[in-house]
Amino acid sequence: SEGLCQMGHEVFVYNPHNHPYQMNTWNNVNIIHCYDPEFRLGTIGQFIYDLNCILDSRKRNFDIILQLGYTSSSVWNWLFPKNSIIVTNMDGLEWKRSKYSKMVQNFLKFAEKLAVKYSDYLIADSKGIQSYLKNKYSIESEYIPYGANLVDNCNEKELNEFDLKPYNYNMLIARIESENNIETILKGIINSDTKRKMLVIGSINNKYGQYIKSKFTDERIIFLGYVSFIKKLNLLRYFSHIYFHGHTVGGTNPSLLEAMSSQSLICAHNNEFNKAILLDDAFYFNCDKCITSLLNKSEISERNQYVSHNIEKIKIKYSWDTIVSDYESFMNSCLNK
């Protein structure tokens, strides 16, 4: 939104009424505050918030409405203003998430169908999602991934806050959920000979998080919980020995791009989404034994090659300048059609 404003476009972003940021503009982006009852009603409140946003859009004269995801909005998509072009970024395959019950998974499949039906154009943030949409719905989508900013000149003295030394710890950042392979990664850690600490960053305030914390009591494993400041996350990624990425569901994961841009050496779960981004410039795991074997290596000669190649990917394919330009070009083509 900021990049499109800098290109001269007028951009509005919907925001919950109780969001900490209460101004009506941010870096020339217009903010529309809509009532969001999620704090009172839980998940059902997300559906009401999306309905409120869509009803508000009917009062305005938007050329294009861009939806980022569809989980709680597609049931209302038939209410969008008829004169606006509806573009939906389909995000990941939400119905594949193992945390959801069969009933919820079936609803998410239904929501996905509605998003495809009521959208004029679709955006896929990964080649895997693009292929899925083509095979499932025989429909074309525009491939535009997420972006990341390069990280350098980190100060190792700032690690003192965490009682860490450069390259003397491994880490992961994720929602603590089963499809992110937290258990597999930590099992690989405790079965290894490494003396390095293992940082687990993500909220454990859920049933699965509490299970993981109670199961893995090895003194090398440190649960930092949720860390909100991007500068701190970049610092930790920058000086890590190995960054583990266990995500299996979805497209271009922003945290993976951030790890690449932070010059991390990455070990990722072996699936089409991760391999489409990292290519040959990472270690991959299918099981905990792969992780144990990697950690037991006395030296990792591939580090400089993998890191430098991933930095080049960020500069060429995943820079925000490129992503914003791709969005503008695609939106202009939608308008012209």
Secondary-structure blueprint:
Blueprint: H1 2-6, E1 12-16, E2 25-26, E3 29-34, H2 38-41, H3 44-57, E4 64-68, E5 85-89, H4 102-118, E6 121-124, H5 127-137, E7 142-143, E8 169-173, H6 182-190, E9 197-201, H7 207-215, E10 221-225, H8 230-238, E11 243-245, H9 254-261, E12 266-269, H10 272-278, E13 283-285, H11 288-295, H12 303-316, H13 320-336
Parallel strand pairs: 1-3, 4-5, 5-6, 6-7, 8-9, 8-11, 9-10, 11-12, 12-13
Antiparallel strand pairs: 2-3
Helix pairs in contact: 6-11
Q: What does this molecule look like?
A:
This protein has a six-stranded parallel beta sheet, sandwiched between helices. The two termini are 22 Å apart. The chain is built from 13 helices and 13 strands. It has 337 residues and is an alpha/beta fold. 33% of the residues are buried. The longest helix is centred in the N-terminal third of the chain and has 17 residues, at 102-118. Helix 6 crosses helix 11 (288-295). Strand 9, helix 7 (207-215) and strand 10 form a beta-alpha-beta unit.
